[in-house]
Specification:
With about 350 residues, this protein is α/β, with parallel strands linked by helices. It is built from 12 helices and 12 strands. It has helices at about 40, 45-50, 65-80, 95-105, 125-130, 160-175, 190-210, 225-235, 250-260, 280-285, 300-315, 340-350; strands spanning about 55-60, 85-90, 110-115, 135-140, 150-155, 180-185, 215-220, 245, 270-275, 290-295, 325-330, 330-335. Helix 8 (about 225-235) packs across helix 9 (about 250-260). The longest helix has 18 residues, at about 160-175.
Length: about 350
Amino acid sequence: MYRPLGKVVPWLLLSAALALSVTACGGDDSASSSSSDGASAKASTPEEILDGKKVGIIYLALDDPFYQAFQRGAKAWAKEHNVDLIEQDGRKDPAAMASEVEQFVTQQVDGIIFSPIDAAAAVTPIKSAQAAKIPIVVNSIKQAEGAEAPFAGLNEGVNEVKLGKETAQLFHKRFGDDAKIKLMTEECPIAEVSTIRADGFIKGLKEVDPNIEIIKRVDGGCVQDKSVNAMEDALQNNDAPSLLYGVNGIATVGGLIALKAKNLADPDKMIAVATDGAEQEIVEGIKSTSPLQIGVTISPVKLAGFNFEVLGDVMLGKIDPLKNSDHLMPSEILSYKDCARMQQWVKEDLLSSTDLGC
């Protein structure tokens, strides 16, 4: 399992390939361009190689609760392991992200953790960093063809298939074998990962119940207020759903706000499920009056630390910095009705002090 802050566990899902002659910052004689004292050459763990290094990190968007928690995790890991962290908010803007990578190149950082919003737009900044012999690890969304780099993230879509199966079983257990699953989703197709998650969920549903009806796949931009408006528009021209799936926490909450406004979010008549584990989603889900039941939960705090570990192994020469390789951290499926477990999640996986009142 993932190693928590300050503890060492013996695994990472790493590539066996050694980095060619290009190591952390491209020097031929050392693991890092900033290792003149020889300390980096003696390093054997990601924590050791990153000690004292300057790392640039680009968050996909800091108005997103997931990346707010990801940021808390990144800061905690960097503080514990003596990393000089330089942060940038990507603002879901590919042009801004490209400019931020160029800033990191100018600042001569030792490594970059990059969460792009657009696969195609990620190619040029990745190649720019690599041309400057700065190792870059991609998180969240893989880059398109044209650039190769290690990816540290999740096996997206896999647990969503399992969630779809469990949701179909839960739905029919609660409402009967003949009850009709009428699905609406809250998505943001601009992000490829959104489609992967929703497609996986629908696949799992259909494996249990091939007769589901997909009423509408709503594009709410994965922003809460936009998700509210998009769901309101969808409800004007379509039947009400008996099942809602959201690809992230704020999209799910946005959809439920719109459904509640029309008295359609009755847990005795519908179910809602999600991928994320964001705090807003958890606060909603623990309510007995909420239709939100279960979800794929992703720990942004652990994912942040995992990205540093992968970057460290690139700098150690354990992962080729110029080749595609997948380094994947597991997610979980949890019940939002288990308040004690959700309180633990909020504290440890979101680094939040929110008291759920369990």
